[in-house]
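Morning run. Coffee first, then this:
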Amino acid sequence: SNDTHPDFYRLVPMTKNEYEGKPEKSATAKRILRIEQMRDMQERASRVPVLSERSVIIIEGVETMQEAAANSILKTIEEPEGPVVFILITSHPAFLLDTIRSRCMIMEFGILSDEDIMGYLQNQGITEFVARGLASLADGSIGRAVTLQGERLQELHGEAIKLLTDLPIMTN
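And here it is:
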């Protein structure tokens, strides 16, 4: 939550409804970092830290920023008004504007084992069977596993199996 520490601010991609505080009804609604979120972040970045030496702003899914949003934060990232550290998170750095990438220090993290991902998912209340399937599709990323879990993975898997079993048997 953004309210856990006054000097910490986190942005995540949102649908239009989520940004407006409404429930999202569409499973396929596009989540992006919106220019309005960037403006809110810029205002937070200009504040003097309350409890710490500097503020920390984490921006997740940076690759989802629209070009206008990305351009709007260039000066803030390069020359913030207050003492602030920006952490930009992406699994697709090639999708970032060169002007953003050139202002960042790149830190790469390794992939997690399926067992680590399964352990995390099971601690979140997901059954071992489901956790195993999600971990095998997650390419070493807990975030990807959680996203897959939220995308009706089991339902889609069941539909795929039904489709395959309903196909007529092919013979030569």
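Helices lie at 16-19, 35-45, 67-78, 98-101, 114-123, 128-137, 142-150, 153-166. Good start to the day.
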